[in-house]
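Hello forum,

I keep getting stuck at the same step: I have a sequence, I want structure tokens, and every attempt I make locally crashes halfway through. Rather than fight my setup again tonight, could one of you with a working pipeline run this one for me? It's a single chain of 592 residues.
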Amino acid sequence: MLMEAIYHRPKDNFVYAYNHETLHIILRTGKSDVDSVDLLFGDPYHIDNEQWLYKIAAMEKSGSTKMHDYWKIAVKPEFRRMRYGFRCSNSDKTVYYTERGFSESASTDKDSYFCFPYLHKGDVFSAPAWVKETVWYQIFPERFANGNLSNDPVGTLPWGETDPTPSNFFGGDFHGVMEHLDYLVDLGINGIYFTPIFKAHSNHKYDTIDYMEIDPQFGDKDTFRRLVSECHKRGIRVMLDAVFNHSGYYFAPFQDVLEHQDKSAYRDWFHLWDFPVVTEPKPNYDTFAFGASMPKLNTEHPDVKQYLLDVARYWIEEFDIDGWRLDVANEVDHAFWREFREVVKSVKPDAYILGEIWHDSMPWLLGDQFDAVMNYPFTNGTIDFFAKQEMDASTFANSITKVLHMYPANVNEVAFNLLDSHDTPRILTLAGGNVDRVKLLYLFQLTFIGTPCIYYGDEIGMTGGQDPGCRACMIWDKDKQNRDLFHFVKALISLRKSNSVYANGANFRFLHVDDAKNTIVYEKYTEDNRVIFVVNNSSEHVTGSFGLSGMFDEQILTEFGFQKNLVDTGKISIDLAPYGFRIFERVDVKVD
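Reply #2:
Ran it on my machine without issues. Output:
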């Protein structure tokens, strides 16, 4: 037994309060090295005849990667406190693992065991419940729809007749969004994430001039208030993009710095290296990336902090928005985000706080800063496997299993699962124009744990490379839309909403992977429900049993959406078309 591969730490994603009475405990072991794991646990003060009394419960293998197996158990400590350790066994030996290391027998000293001091209700990670039921739609306002020609910027081009560039404008605005809200309702959308809408110089608006004003090309505050109201009437939540890491070049305080240099009252609002402040040939101040037009804000400065916190409060109080997406969130100090959360939650307790972070984000997901992050580790795995065909089935299963074990389960349930965005090529382009691969992407995204997001236009087959190619004008001519893809996505969203087992509230695991055929079988399950997905991510027909037998209700896609059909998999072979899939709901089934 590789004892050096056995790992646990008594915090973060290895032990956490799932709710006010339940702990989730995770142990990591070497791949296929341990046959069973039991949890030894008890109240630290439960002593009889000077002996600590503990219980023993079997842990379940919750997933595997190339290097590790993960074991999980849910426990409800009677008095909300617990000491615990692990018993790991294989055919050769049994070892006990506690905070003090390994032993061949269970320690009689309770103080040697891992400690969870007390389950405080206030320490439970708590994100808005509504997010678990939300399917998001990301809108790049300048390119979604032009509903009011009177507010078009100078030089606005005819809608969609020219390729997007970093500097051209097509006149997208709030009126255009309102004209198409019923389109989003028809698709099944109940959350909109807007990229920045505040006054800015560029077409992307990530170079803010005034955080308290709407960019005039989109409309005014009355128009925005009406847009939020119309969204809410349709059950659609609204999330705005906050760019607090950096401002724009024309932000008044930065202009004051350029004019008054070291005499400026705003000199400490930015990270200036020396004077005079210059932008050419290279900026001598901290920026986003190395962009002179986006000077980095000093969020530790009291005046900067207060200004931005006032911004966060204002748009919720005045316009009733439902959430903030935080740009370049990992480059802003943790102390600021803690205060940001306090302000936002004091105004609207169920507001959603989403951070843009592209890597492991556990430090921001401890309950004192963000509710979720943009789940790029999920994105990378799904794109490489389904779209690019650059990853084999077992590597994909490893990557997704790792994603699921990076964070606590209650964090995963509100993770923002995107496939592409304004920062990446579109999925149909990444898939080499193969719509069937895109359908598999949507199948996996819309049946996975978390809150999925669709980038505008992907659902009707829009293409586009890296920025600015991915920011083309939305296609509204139905004759130029892929309506089959639209109806497929609509049917999947409807299926997701029909039963929680397709969304959140269900466990996830891979049952079967085949690298030679590039097929996967995964399962969503609860105590009362079970759904199995058989997926062929190859260009060849595939037939087999895939380890399934028994009676199932198969979900079959029709022109009216998914409909059930009873099948006996013990009497048929499961046939999968190239890039095809089958969905089976349990009636009477066993899995080998």
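The longest strand covers residues 548-558. If your local run keeps crashing, start a new thread with the error log.
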